[in-house]
Amino acid sequence: MSSVPTQFSRVLSGMRPTGKLHLGHYHGVLKNWLRLQHEYPCFFCVADWHALTTEYENPGKISTNVWDMVVDWLAVGIHPGEATMFIQSRVPEHAELHLLLSMTTPISWLERVPTYKDQQEKLREKDLSTYGFLGYPLLQSADILIYKAGQVPVGEDQVVHVELTREVARRFNHLYGREPDFEEKAHAAIKTLGKKNAKLYNDFRKAFQEQGNHEALEKARALLEDMQHITLGDRERLFGFLEGSGKIILPEPQALLTKAAKMPGLDGQKMSKSYGNTIALREAPESVEQKLKTMPTDPARVRRTDPGDPDKCPVWALHQVYSNDDVKNWVQENCRSAKIGCLECKRPVIDAVQAELAPIRARAAEFEADPAGVRQIINQGCEAARDVARATLEEVRSAMGLVHE
Ligand code: TRP
Ligand code: SF4
Description:
- The protein has helices at 23-39, 48-55, 62-76, 93-104, 107-111, 114-122, 131-134, 136-145, 159-176, 182-191, 195-211, 214-226, 232-243, 285-293, 314-322, 325-336, 342-368, 371-399, and strands at residues 11-15, 42-46, 83-87, 151-154, 254-257.
- By secondary structure, the protein is mainly alpha-helical.
């Protein structure tokens, strides 16, 4: 945690509002956010414009989906005192940055993002040959860069979007971070660090540039981070000078790959709404019980007396998520020898899921009963996000020659 200088420590992530969330979201994404919110300044974005890129013909449900998703975030414990939660379209600065970045982004970069063609294929029933859909990943880049986020927790499918964001940022800094008198200004900025720190900075820079010493790069960044008195412009110059580029106005973010294994659904495939194999976070207890009781098991185990193979059973996949070693050993032994029935085997999983969901359901009910309170949390989040977004946008406008005085 301490190895990431605060300049780059902001975390940004987003989700398209698809409605009530399920256990797949919880284990795959939200548990990660819950941890991060205590470690870094976090911004969590309800990406309603992103939803519109595919739902533009049918936007009626987006608003309900937004509030359902926010309630679920709050219910699992994303806390407004720890993380800034906001709605993308309420921070219109994202749109202006998207527009400005579109000036410098080659169309081919967007056309070759694999999700572009993949999603068009997958969502064939929708006409996604739109300008907005092509720009989807660039809008995401704007989401990230406007907070100068250093880390972006995403699933595997989104890593390419973070990669694109890095290229977009690099190009931006290359085009607009090079002032004619950059070197001079950088040297003048070094002097303002004071003798001792200036020497440290120069030594670290040399070690990085001449020997590729990344530890030295990290140390120099941390050093700059500790310098409270230098101006924002000088800080950006010194970050850039360190790496041999111009000013770093938009830092390149890192993808923080969500480690959590894919949450298995009721049929053994990844849990996903489109497969109809989900358990919602607000699912009623009776329904949880029913869904798990009737979920398929090893198809070869037709009769109670037939031995089973956990490796061929979706219930076993759930034991991996919910059960300790003792329970798992018990399943392995007694399934293969047909000493337990499948219903018996499911019991510990059912109990664990119920125990996990009970407090979430209860908190969700509280937030559902207080829509005004939820709206207030989000209003405050939007304001806080806007403050940061405005500051970045001012720098971007000025770097692009858009300050007309
Ligand atoms: N595209 C992301 C998804 O479909 C959602 C998203 C929008 C996002 N903006 C973002 C994720 C910014 C990370 C950072 O899951
Ligand atoms: Fe699956 Fe358990 Fe039945 Fe074996 S006993 S087939 S692991 S549900």
